[in-house]
């Protein structure tokens, strides 16, 4: 029998191509020799009224083909970009226009669009556009937004887009009656996704077919397709969106459509030429999206054991100048904050606020790092107050394995009940303590102190909602060669989809792994899909692919049964050959079965033993049976009743330099539960990547705005990304597998796990090393140095 591939660390099939420089990204698309290039004029001001735009100096520039401002937009293109995820609490939703109308609200907002013979001419032309502004006061940061002395949008009172409150029990009363009470005030700053490949779009209009082809670096090809069709007044069937290789997404590319994804095809259709836009790094910093920024206030009541009796959380979320992705980030913070705990009484209230800064959309973790930070800092504060072990306090509050499914009594991001499907948090705690050496650490700390060295240990736990709906689909086609082509509509940005999906298909169909080819993000192959985000690809598309392969297998066995005059239940498929169980001599290749599945066979080879034109078959039956289609293929969709909930725990040991306050990672450990593992190697790769981003977000990365709304560090010279020297040299990883009962594979998502606990776990470790309360993240050596001084502590 063929060895099952699920659960095996199969090498990624994508890597050889990428390592040899053979990746094909949007900027590599060269569909025409006479390609035109686009550039965008962006606002240099955070808040200003546009009085006049003069493009006369541009019109006669040699090589310029087209200039658009808002006045050139008509119909749906002249309307605001879509608010993708409405919510009843989002009473003041505002989105930008493809090109600014009347007013700009952040540095980087698109004002004019130029198409020229090459990018150099386009950039020069952009610099010749003259704009007259009336400057307006900028609102920067949560505190300024809450003061509401100035407004981002004149028609939005108090800069508040939304207010949302959820309650379980009576948290206020429970806290008041609790034996012990604490209050915490916490902040977490903005960061950015910074994928290696920025945004890019290429469009070609075919006047003969009246059809648009669009290549774009996106996490939702089908979403872009729908938006482009509506905005340009095209039928959905007139638009093909192809997502080639994507050099990282991390959330910023799930927002759609970006202005350029509409302006590029609009220009291509108008000019009858292929048009390309590729953003530069500064553009990505100032005009794409950020995430994370929140101010939090927490009140908690607990008993002598540290058991939560009541938890009251209020926070203020900075979503920037516009809110195209709705309230997803703060809703996730407010619900995922609870992690593996059961607080008994819980109240959460948040306000989502406008500021004159780049808009916020989900970034890997998507609100969970902020929630984990709030909850885990609270757990540490309780343990310190009671003089108890931090792990013990957490264990006291865990949901127990026999309590699943566990309903937290809240409404999650998908509008469904926040009900955890499975998990074993006590088992994870045992594993993480062993992995990091938790019980041995006090002796190690004393030993280091004797040498004049400061070390600290931190622990953070989380639960991650994954696999949100509404659906994903898949198409599995067995070719007449016996090869298997798999198509799913979601896109891929380096997660190893071509490998894990091929593993699932090879297992279900009984074919060789190398005979399976996977295509993602091409609306020509799979026109209906949702997208790649929220750790949903394996759960959603994996389940759909499994179901589609099962359909293809059922059809294959039925046809093979007729050919072999055997009961399909007695057949098996091994290495692409269908045979009777116990009689391997009675067999037929899957490729031949595929030939037989089509009455119009065109089988030009001897191996098929089939007619070369068409087969009449049984005169008493139609050539294609009722409720079937020609061809050996299966199509299916998977739509879950609710999300799956992965979980995990991170622990870190850090050393803080007594003189420079430099923070060094000595050990990093992860225990992760994503249900049944498809490919442990790829899961661990996802964890490694997430931890690297988490280190950056906790210790280095922040978007630094001045009071006028200018981004001061819009380059990698100033925005500090961690190098390999700053990321843990080795990450100790252990897995727990508690299968989900909600999907046929028993799996949960894994893509964001590595980054979720980072701010919390580093804050805890640094606090332990320094004996200084850490309430703001990220924290740099200079900030730690200043914190020491503010508390009268020596820096040496």
TrEMBL record:
Single Gene Ontology MF annotation: carbon-monoxide oxygenase activity
The entry's keywords: Molybdenum, Oxidoreductase
InterPro entries the record matches: Ald_Oxase/Xan_DH_a/b, Ald_Oxase/Xan_DH_a/b_sf, Ald_Oxase/xanthine_DH-like, AldOxase/xan_DH_MoCoBD1, AldOxase/xan_DH_MoCoBD2, AldOxase/xan_DH_Mopterin-bd_sf
Stretches assigned to the Aldehyde oxidase/xanthine dehydrogenase a/b hammerhead domain: 20-137
UniProt-annotated stretches for the region Disordered: 613-633
EC number(s) on file: 1.2.5.3
Keyword Cytoplasm: no
Class of this enzyme: oxidoreductase
Name the UniProt record assigns to this protein: Aerobic carbon-monoxide dehydrogenase large subunit
Organism of provenance: Nocardioides caricicola
Lineage: Bacteria, Bacillati, Actinomycetota, Actinomycetes, Propionibacteriales
Underlying gene: cutA
